[in-house]
Amino acid sequence: MFEEIRISQLGVIDSSTLELGPGFTVITGETGAGKTMVVTALGLLLGGRADSGAVRRGAANARVEGVVVTDGLGDFVTQVEEHGGEVEDGRVVLARNISAEGRSRAWVGGAGVPAAKLAQVAEPLVAVHGQSDQHRLLRATAQREALDRFGGDEVASVAGEFADAWRHLAGVERELRDVVSSARERAREADQLRFALEEIEKVSPEPGEDVALAAEETRLGFADTLRVAAETAREALSSDQGSSDALGAAAAARGALEGVREHDPEAADLADRLAELTYLLSDLGADVASYASKLDTDPLRLAAVSERRAALIALTRKYGETIDEVLEWSSEAVQRLTQLDDTDGRIEELRVARTEARARVARLGAELTRLRTAAAARLGAAVSDELTLLAMPHATLQISVTQQEVTPAPGEESGPVVDVDGRHLRGTVHGFDEVEFLLAANAGMNPRPLDKGASGGELSRVMLAVEVVLAATTTVPTFVFDEVDAGVGGKAAIEIGRRLATLARNAQVLVVTHLPQVAAFADRHIVVAKSSDGSVTTSGLVTLAEDERERELSRMLAGLEDSDTALAHARELIEAARATR
């Protein structure tokens, strides 16, 4: 859970520390005091979007820090350490800075990370619910997601398998459409490949042949020049005419030293080295002579090599930079041609694969519908029980799980329509089911969609009831409710406070509210206090003592902090809350 949240230069808050703990913490304050800044600060710690407009006017940057107690949060600790952060005394500090220019920086356990990584690490810690979530719950997608979440691992597993099977089916159908519709293009491509392969086969190139022929052509083209150079070199090494040459000079030097070798070991060593040199010069002279003898001018061979190279170059202009690349392209072309020539066979294979894929989708879709229908009955009953406790004793929530049955067009072979147990159902990657929450607010009323059958106050209670029920299916340690009690008052507000207190028995609950009936149930009461020097307005967070709680509740009740009647009413609210928790 969060132990404390430190806020600096955010909105109207100059510098404040929000001390938290287990149980139910409530935050109240006058309108405009900055209660929502607490939720904004928490959103920043969860990796939310940074808005430079939230930086306090005149400040260079805003900063939010949160201290998280890691008891029982093994996965969270692992992620912190994987990102280079540290855990000290069982606590981790999350931090976020926003500059007035809009730049954002984030830290996890002292290690700098991108905001997206902060979100990845911190998001599992908190579930935030506000007025916007009520509108979200009106969307069919959100209702399906809530039902699947309540269904637990079993629904999630089948839903994941269905999504994979649906994507596979879509891929098979897409390829089948492409193969059938592009038969003419495939035939044209096959003809082009055959022509290219025949052209390559006619030349019959060998691996590396282009490199070898290029070297040979150069050698043949400069045969006379090379031969003259070789003869000159051979003459210099070992002359047939008796003129001075390298071999003769080396032999003379060796003879001079051989005559004195017995007088000095170093002279003997030099004589031995000269002996080695004469042997080497002799071998080198023979090799040069052999090279020179092979350098005959051969115009016919040169013409043949040039013609062969021209044929190879014609291939490399079309099919690769080198002959090796041409041969590789040829191998791939043979495989592709095999596929193209077997178009009818491929169409049949795809049709068989499609039948199998549609059967798997139908089976998993039917199983997913069965699980969702069972979960819908349980969730509807559980939320209805919660609504009874929230002063809606005759309200019932029904969750409809239906499918859209359609009549496929004659000859239709693809698309989002699948035969499931003899019914042609239209589906998506999420299944064939359309999930809708229906509310009957009073006895005898027909269930209606939430956007048509619930008032603002009723919708708030439905939202809270759903979250209380779903809380049992999640391991999120902290819940934040931002004025989800808007539009509610009287007895219903008391029941909302009681249910929030019940939820707080197993989780940390943080609630921003304007209702004294809800605040009375809190274990800890924090007020956002506003002050002004005539030109600058600031707010701070103050944890209230017991007598201060009574004054704050009296202000919320009557707008008067020192009214004896309001104080008595506030005291009565607190005592009633204690008695019924």
TrEMBL record:
GO terms for cellular component: bacterial nucleoid. The lineage of its organism: Bacteria, Bacillati, Actinomycetota, Actinomycetes, Propionibacteriales. Coiled coil: none annotated. Belongs to the RecN family. Keywords: ATP-binding, DNA damage, DNA repair, Nucleotide-binding. This is DNA repair protein RecN. The keyword ATP-binding applies. InterPro entries: DNA_recomb/repair_RecN (IPR004604), P-loop_NTPase (IPR027417), RecF/RecN/SMC_N (IPR003395). Residues 13-534 form the RecF/RecN/SMC N-terminal domain. May be involved in recombinational repair of damaged DNA. The keyword Electron transport does not apply.
